[in-house]
Amino acid sequence: MTGPQTPRQPARRTGPDDAARAQELSRRFAEVYGHAPDGVWRAPGRVNLIGEHTDYNDGFVLPFAIDRSALVAVRLRRAAEQERPAGQDEDATGRHVVDLASTYAPDGGGLSRARFRIPGLAPGSVGGWGAYPAGVVHVLAGLDGVEVPGFELLLDSTVPVGAGLSSSHAVEVATVVALNDLLDLGLDGPEMARLTQRAENEFVGAPTGIMDQSASLRGRAGAALFLDCRSQAAELVPLPLGRHGLTVLVIDTRVAHSHADGGYGARRASCERGAAALGAASLRDVPEQADLTGLDEETARRVRHVLSENRRVLDTVARLRAGDVRGIGELLVASHASMRDDYEISCPELDLAVDTALAAGAVGARMTGGGFGGSAIALVPEVRADLVRGAVVEAFAELGHRAPEVFVVVPGEGAGRVR
Ligand code: ADP
Ligand code: MG
Question: Which residues lie below 8 Å from residue 79, measured CB to CB, with a gap of 6+?
Fold first, then answer.
């Protein structure tokens, strides 16, 4: 299999909307913490165009960063704040304290706040959303020669939470790019991707792969990121949707998914079992035409999904390079069938979203993300977008499902500093 060619890193760009959001976030930060932040950083969510559950099998993925992102305003604690007068409570403002606040408050109103001390950080020691920034701090503080001081952080994200668009990685990536800049760590995209993966695996406790944070860190406007999850070699593949009169709709089924739950881990375990039985270190090393008859029926289907999905990623890249954007539609459809039947990670709402979108004129559609809920994507002619949206909403209502959120996503810029 031929992977991506060597990466190139063009300069970052951010849009005017980000500048306005960042300014508002700085103002809010001053309200919350009583002084200005050191800066504002941005990390987008992602949509995976194709290549699902291939990342932890050392395979290929093709995600893109989306035009919805987490912004964080951050201020490191100053030396003056680090010297506590005798007797003063170090926990209140001491140099090792991290204060977090998010404008996302699911229980309505106000800010979601969290606080932790850096010494003694261990998996399980910080609960709730604070675990994501804490995980990043934990892995950075564990690097040779790196000392992470306490800081204050205010988060505002437009990535829908729990929709399979990686709102959690947006939080982690925004935190890591901010600390990388402020502490002058000099980490590049692939290094930050590995570190956030470790934060997620070792600290948060979700056995996720390298795709989501790579898309957020290394994505570029107007392109998808063809990533070899084994070497982390990546190539930007142009995705000129507008030129072909196409757009990508996200259909958020609003069925909650959770990677920390058993389904995801069970699929990983099946893949490891399959690879071992086939005498390979990972499924990446298993040839596409391998004889799977020695495996039990379920493991064989899991393996078949991964092998065929890797092939579909390569075919999708080939078609995009040839300028055949519409031609990727059938590969998206085949990918969904494979996840539904072989990998068994779809659900009735995702299947309904895909089938309805296709019937209403989408050229391709598939569930995206880890599965068991979350979102589907549909590649649709711009002129049919409203029709597809209406058909999906109606189909969900007819079957008594919760109303889905349907919205357009545009391949956007990867993470960086906004101000
Ligand atoms: P996904 O990453 O697909 O959106 P996850 O369940 O992996 O779903 O991550 C969602 C979790 O990420 C939330 O429960 C919360 O802990 C955290 N999170 C994401 N965005 C925010 C936010 N804006 N504010 C606070 N926490 C957030
Ligand atoms: Mg997540």
Answer: none
> What token pair was written down for 21?
């959001």
What does pLDDT average to in each consecutive run of 10 residues of the chain (419 residues)?
Answer: 55 65 97 98 98 96 97 90 54 81 84 94 94 98 96 97 92 98 97 96 89 97 97 96 97 80 88 97 96 97 98 98 98 98 96 98 96 95 98 98 96 96
Q: Which fold has domain 241-409?
A: Alpha-Beta Plaits (3.30.70)
Strands 60-76, 151-157: parallel, antiparallel or unpaired by DSSP? antiparallel
**Ligand 1: which atom is nearest the Cα of residue 160?**
4
Q: Counting every residue, how long is the chain?
A: 419
The rounded Å distance from CA 315 to ligand 1 centre is 32
191 three-state secondary structure? helix
Q: Ligand nearest 373 Cα, by number?
A: 1
State which ligand 1 atom lies nearest to the alpha carbon of 159.
20
Nearest CA to ligand 1 atom 22: 104
Q: Is 338 in the pocket of ligand 1 (CB under 6 A)?
A: no
Q: Is the shortest distance between the CB of 162 and ligand 1 below 6 Å?
A: yes
- The CATH number of 16-84+91-237 is which of 2.30.22.10, 3.30.230.10, 3.40.50.880, 3.30.1330.30? 3.30.230.10
